[in-house]
Specification:
mainly beta; seven-stranded antiparallel β-sheet; about 5% helix
Length: about 270
């Protein structure tokens, strides 16, 4: 159950909106657009064949709509002052961050752009309707999760339990403590589906190698003597980028020789509340 919403504008000001009635002059009447967004499916048909063949799918932008009731005390504020205060947070075209709090202790963030702010000036009981477009539709728990491990030369794995329902990319940082020439990253979900990334390249003691599978920031970066360079060419063409899926993910990095320490970092993503 959601308990409150925090709205943060670009200047860092925060507006708190409770979902239960209190003495707040802004009362949430309704929020729409928190469920999973509609997917766009692409398919193709072939002459002489019934039906179609699925090609791809993608999720569109999220449109969150908030309806607020204004509850002035007519001592410290009135309808006009309450409405004008909202302009600081919901001016059209402005970017804001919404944070939704749950009674379970979970809180998630989403960033959007204000599309519309509607509030009739001469209504007897004014309300405010706000439309926010979130072009990245996931709700994100911004608290970074860190898992530490070491490479192995067998099939021993560590379990990473991922509570989100949207796949999450990871950032794997290997702190090289000996000469290495190759390694493989594996992640196996509860259904037995295997993601495998093979790397081949010369690494030295003291190097740091960062493998990122984050959407929009995928890459492999070598940091040697405080100088960064790309080693993306070391990833085999047949490799998959590592992502965590809902449930238990069996994760390991295999390479011959002594263990090499690594850190896995990720954030949890949700497709709806």
């Amino acid at each position: 159950m959601l308990t409150k919403v925090e709205v943060t504008n670009r200047r860092g000001n925060v507006l708190v909106l409770a979902l239960e009635e209190d003495d707040n002059p802004y009362q949430i009447n309704e929020i729409e657009g928190l469920e999973p967004v509609k997917a766009t499916l692409v398919s193709s048909s072939y002459a002489g064949s019934d039906g179609e063949v699925f090609q791809s799918a993608r999720r569109g932008a999220r449109n969150i709509k908030i309806k607020l009731d204004l509850d002035p005390d007519f001592i410290n504020n009135d309808y006009t002052s309450l409405r004008q205060n909202l302009y600081l947070f919901f001016a059209t075209k402005s970017e804001i961050k919404l944070r939704f709090y749950s009674s379970t202790g979970l809180y998630v963030d989403i960033v959007g752009t204000v599309e519309e702010f509607s509030s009739p000036l001469f209504a007897q009981d004014p309300t405010v309707d706000i439309s926010i477009m979130c072009f990245k539709p996931d709700f994100v728990d911004a608290r970074m999760v860190t898992v530490e491990g070491s490479t192995v030369d067998d099939d021993a794995s560590i379990e990473i339990e991922y509570p989100g329902n949207i796949e999450a990319g990871v950032v794997v940082t290997l702190n090289i403590n000996r000469v290495m020439t190759e390694f493989t990253i594996y992640s196996v979900d509860e259904g037995g589906n295997i993601l495998q990334l093979d790397f081949d390249g010369a690494l030295e003691d003291g190097d740091q190698l960062v493998v990122s599978s984050l959407k929009g920031a995928k890459g492999i970066t070598l940091i040697r003597d405080a100088i960064s360079s790309s080693l993306l060419y070391g990833r085999s063409a047949q490799s998959s980028w590592i992502e965590l899926t809902e449930g238990v993910n069996n994760f390991r990095i295999t390479t011959p020789g002594d263990p090499v320490p690594y850190i896995v970092e990720y954030v949890v993503r949700y497709g709806g509340l």
